[in-house]
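fyi for ur records
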Amino acid sequence: MRLLAAAAAGSLLISSLGGAEMERALALARARDAERQQFHHRYLYELPGPVVTQIEVVTPFRRLVIIGEDHVARGDWMFTRGLREAEEAIKPMRDIMTIRATIRFNPLNTFIQSPPYTLALSARASDQLEPIGTNLTPQFSNEFKAPDGKKLTGSLIGATLESSFGAGLVGPAARTVAVTLEGKDVGHVRVDFSQLE
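which gave:
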């Protein structure tokens, strides 16, 4: 709980990680499960609508926590005890923020491919949504066998949208993060980036 209290006291988006922030992220990666879940909860937004089910934010600080947790889960506790390996691991994405959204389709859909959903972010000066470069990864159900024994590709059940960009572009402000289809908002959340690290 002390780690979360320290984070809350200095709640400001960290767009570039320094040594002190990296040490704090690695300490959090070693923390108890309940403390880590509480930390991650602030970055996950569940949506009640039928299409967009979740929007997730991965800041540079949280990315290092996730990398550290992965090492700890594999028994590599030494990774979280020093900065050299952590600096190397985070280097390619050191100043990068990622936004992800999970899309679910009606089980009775007849899609052959996913509709062109995109992520959008509100402008700093207004609530007008601006599209951001989005990678869309379709999700299929498990393969199944036809009566003649042939393996058939599963049906399209959803998609994951992802966008990565320089964390400094967002700044510590509240902005709307939305999923859009042909320019129309199909699900959004208001993210106060000043409350994230």
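The two ends are 16 Å apart (CA to CA). thats all i got for now
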